[in-house]
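::Encoded backbone::
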Amino acid sequence: MRIIHVSHSNKFGGAATYVDRVITSHMSINLDNMLLASTLKDSSYRSYVISSSGQKNINYIKAKLAQTVDSKIKNLEMSRIHTHKSPNLIGAVKASELNRDPGEIIHFYWINGGLISLRQIEKISKPIVWTMLDMWPFLGSEHYLTDLNNLRYVDGYRKSNKPVSSKGIDVCKIVWKLKIKHYNKFFLVAPSKWLADEAKKSALFFEQHVEIIPPAIDANIFKPIEKSVARSFFGLKKEDFIIGYLGGTSIRKGWNFIKDLCNYHDSNSNWQFLLGGASKESFIKDCKLKDNINFIGRLYNDDQLVKFYSSIDVLLVPSIAEAYGLVAQEAQTMGIPVIVFENTGAEDTVVHGLSGLVCKERNVKSLKLAIENLCSVEESKKIINANISRQRAIDEWSFNTIGSKYLNLYEKITS
């Protein structure tokens, strides 16, 4: 069976990592794969910029032009709220290219950044599986909603419920209406129950079936190394309790909670914070520099991530909206406990009381209490079993296991 994967990149960011791991899971069960993307890294599978035909440089220019034009359109909203949006009014991939390929299934992921326009989607004649990596497929042009009172995706995008923060053209409404008009029939996949439930609440995918398939992970790469070695890499003391965080200064990923926790007046004296996902300058612009805070910037490869996870005692993933949480999955694969908030996709990664803790209340006090429980020797023995946590990752998230789940879905679609 031949699968045509369509995603913006397999090179930059969490979505790219996700796609790369899904395709690797397909390769583990001998599926034939091809990726069309705007930006590529060297890979062990066939991958092309925009098209398998034409000159690579010209295709790259087309992709960048489409990305630039599409990104300018969102500015017409003149919104005071800065959140990532993708209109997808302009795209470089053509449906005719996908229809000509002998592949049996088209597999969408993160199809934004000028990759494919909404108008082209309805012209695709083959079955489309869509693994949703954020909320964009069922919103307007937004990728996530951090305003929990914003229910436009449920009620429909209308003039009456347009946010007062948007003073210009309602691009979100235009995009939503284009989705209604040009969406094809999709076979939906979500990495978490939370994202599946949100999709099924939406006016676009109301009560539609959503398959839940988490991403795969290589436990041979994500395995712990000696803690003292890892800590020396970051200049950390072996006796300190190290609290890790990789969400940068993103409000959606819980930076406000982390910032307050770092400055909490009653924090334990041996707590040290190891903050990543953004530059040191970005962090200190928004946070008072204290002796208990260490900055590591962005981590760009698996080797750096393994050193990071091996050096910490707990990872905080306090996102308020998250499709899944690759970092939470990676940490638990290495036997590192993870603390998350309830009612996000990151909750799916954690077995409460075994591989981490799920906080029911979204506040700094609940995070602090969870960390204190982990600091207690007696409590941590009850809460976390690193060996069981890692074995769960090997059993449930292996490439072969995840690849087989996708194959079962493909066979249902094509039978």
User: Anything to note?
Assistant: The chain is about 35% helix and 15% strand.
